[in-house]
Each structure stands twice: as structure tokens, then as C-alpha cells.
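Review form for a predicted model. The reviewer records the input and the model, then writes brief findings.
Reviewer: anonymous (R2)
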Amino acid sequence: MTDIRITRDYPHAPAKVWRALTDPALIALWAMRPEGFLPVVGTRCRFVGKPQPGWRGFVECEVLEVRAPETLLYSWVGNEGDAPSYVRYTLEPRTGGTRLIFEHTGFSGVSGFLLAKFVMTPGWKKTFDGLFPRVLGQLDERGELRPESTLTPLY
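Model under review:
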């Protein structure tokens, strides 16, 4: 199996990082548009993006584990009939901020290897190096989007 693991440190409190990971309005600013997402075990939802060759434009998910504000785990099915992969966010408090450990696991076979290495890994790195920290920077201490923010949903 092929797995993706990305670790990033952000100069923001764990509560703010958690909110950016779990508030549907904020998720839409750095990832796909959530439909029906709640950080509650058993929740089934979709994340909607732009269809691409070989991808229908949304993923189906089920929230499997929530331990606020430190762990969120959900299944991820990109196309009908695909075996699920799994997305896990783990937050660790650090002096002056938060360490985010992102894992997307469960890719299998040659097609899974190619998807993980050449599509998903670059996309997730772009997200956690650019889009996600930009959203964090637009949140106030309560984790609310600042009124002067010009961020808009990606999809």
C-alpha cells in the first residue's frame, strides 16, 4: 500500500486549526465544498470539486473518529466502486502553535501508487503549504473569518 503523510507546523492555536479543519464554511475556502459534513462519528457526506478525467468531481466520506481538538478520521471514496482510502488529521500543540499531521492512507495497487504519488501528494502539499495557512491567517482568535477577508469558496 501507498500512503501520504504530510507534517506542517502553523503559528496558530490548536482550537483555530481544528476549526479550519471542521467548520464547513472554512473547509470550502481551502479544500472542496463539503455537503453534509459534520465532525460527528457516523456522518456521511460529500466533498465536491471540479470533475477531471478519471474522477467524477466528488468524494463520498464517512466520519469514523473524532476527538476534538486533536483527531479527525474519515473514509474517502473517489469514484463509484473504489475501495475506500482514509484521511486522518492529528493536531499536536507546540510552543507558539500547532503541528498538523495529515495522513491519507489505503491506496493499493499500481493505480493507487500512481494516484497517491503523482496526483494526491502534490495536491495535498499545495493545500497545506498555501491554501490552508492562508485561511488560518484570515481567522481571528476565536477562529472566525475576519470581516475584511476576501477569501471565497474554491468550488
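Findings: The radius of gyration is 15 Å.
Further findings: Residues 59 and 78 are 5 Å apart (CA to CA).
Recommendation: see findings above.
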